[in-house]
Write the structure tokens for this entry.
Amino acid sequence: MDKTTFEDYIRRFNARDVTAFDDYIHPDLHMMNGTLEFHGLQGMKDHYQQHIWTTFSESLHVPRFVSEGDTVAIQMRTHFEAEVDNDASLFGPVRKGETFDFNGLIMYRLEDGKFIDIQVAYNSFVYTNSRGEQTSLGIPH
């Protein structure tokens, strides 16, 4: 996968365009994100539509991109901002305006031009409350 194609996926993901999953996620996807693991294209859609985008705006930024053969590796910075209060969010209780910032590495394996395996490695995950106080959370799930 070339950088332009990957940037299309990120642009559409940031726009909450669920059709990006149809175009870029293999039906047999395996996703490992900390202790969170799910499978399949529908698992990816359900995760974002039911657990992330119902509470948070999420924006992805990719400072580094490497691709060779069936492998893509990136450095990822992700900013989550709570759009609503939610006592049962994926990250625990949150109040509107609170933020979470992820910095890490993600390795993708491709099959038939789509992501079939995604492995997420954390460098940091930081919570910022409404007073601007930051707390390092380690792996959130």
About this structure: Residues 27 and 126 are 32 Å apart (CA to CA). The longest helix spans residues 40-52.
